[in-house]
Amino acid sequence: YMLFSGTSNPKLAETIASCLKKPLGSVRINRFKSGEIYVHYEESVRNADLYIVQTFSHPVNDHLMELLIMADAARRASARSVNAVIPYFGYARQEKKDAPREPITAKVVADLLTVVGIDRVITIDLHAPAIQGFFHTPVDHLTALDHMTEYLKSKNIMKPVVVSPDAGRAKMAEKLATYLDAPFAIMMKKRPAHHEAAITHIIGEVKGRTPIVIEDMIDTGGTIVSVVEGLLAKGAEPSYVCATHPVFSDYAWERLVHPGIREVLVTDTLPLPEAVSSPKLKVLSMA
Ligand code: R5P
After folding, report:
1. How far away, in angstroms, is 204 Cα from ligand 1 center?
2. Helices 105-115 and 60-76: crossing angle, nearest 10°?
3. Burial of 75 (0-12, 13-18, 19+ CB in 10 A)
4. Does residue 127 sit in helix, strand or coil?
């Protein structure tokens, strides 16, 4: 097999390569002045099982398109199979219609990947696990929960409670609570607008406990801030915040420097900007 990296998260691809003791293959990826993308594999991929590491980091549309073009080039160069390693699968938050005349973008992305002949997708903590069914090829759906559990156990947190910020994350929270042998609580939220979340109420006991909030992603940080504020208001201690994917758009990190947050635990499915470094941030590798 051969391993290649797109331009979205070269550091993660290098870490994967070093775990596998396998060099990354050589591929040239250029942008034309017009913004169009050019790809050329600089070594033969004939009959190889190709693994392309490409996450959907910002700018997400460019990185998606780059992956499609890399897959097309590999197919046309007679690769035996093309496997997409997509640590963070973007566009997953629109996996169903919540209102009339809306798209289902997760299906659009799945269809595009299928059209260019991707044989297998390896991904991590999908926003909605049912997206696996949008493919008729295998999808390996991995999780960061094991790494998170190991890290959280090492912290010996007193009186923990695992908190799901909404009903969508309840299964993940329940699993983490089982792994940590802790109780769990669910918060109910409503969304007055796309990037606003308002907590309506909490099911479960949080008073005097240290919450471990589990999320699939932190995008603008708006949800997490309203969650930790809601928890403080109910008498909880400052929270540990865990999220697999640090999308961190729109000054999210500044928002997360909050007295209600003890520590933020994320993974390297997405690259973090240089400016985002703090003893309160722990990054686990999914390599
Ligand atoms: C929503 O259901 C997701 O699981 C996240 O809670 C949400 O997308 C995070 O976005 P933000 O950080 O912008 O609130």
Report:
1. 21
2. 20
3. middle
4. coil
Q: How large is the average pLDDT for residues 37-43?
A: 98
The residue among 201 and 164 whose pLDDT is bigger is 164
Residues 29 and 121 in one domain: yes
Give the pairing type, strands 49-53 and 139-142.
Answer: unpaired
Of 142, 171, 197, the residue at which a domain comes to its end is 142
CB 241 within 8 A of CB 252: no
Q: Which two tokens stand for residue 28?
A: 């040239």
Marked catalytic residue, from 97, 189, 234, 280: 189
Instruction: Give dist(CA 172, CA 88) in Å, integer.
Output: 17
Q: Could you give the CA distance from residue 27 to residue 45 in angstroms, rounded to a whole number?
A: 11
Domain total in the chain: 2
- 252-287 confidence digits (pLDDT tens): 999 999 999 999 999 999 999 777 778 899 999 999
189 is catalytic: yes
Q: Secondary structure of the chain: what % helix, strand, coil (to 5)? A: 30, 30, 40
| Reported ipTM | 0.96
Same domain, 29 and 57: yes
Express each pLDDT in 186-220 by its tens digit. Answer: 998 777 777 666 777 899 999 999 999 999 999 99
| 209 in the same domain as 124 | no
181: domain CATH number is 3.40.50.2020
Q: Are 94 and 105 in contact (CB under 8 A)?
A: yes
Report the residue among 194, 218, 225 best suited for mutation to probe ligand 1: largest number of ligand atoms under 8 A from its CB: 218
Bridging pattern class, strands 198-203 and 184-190: antiparallel
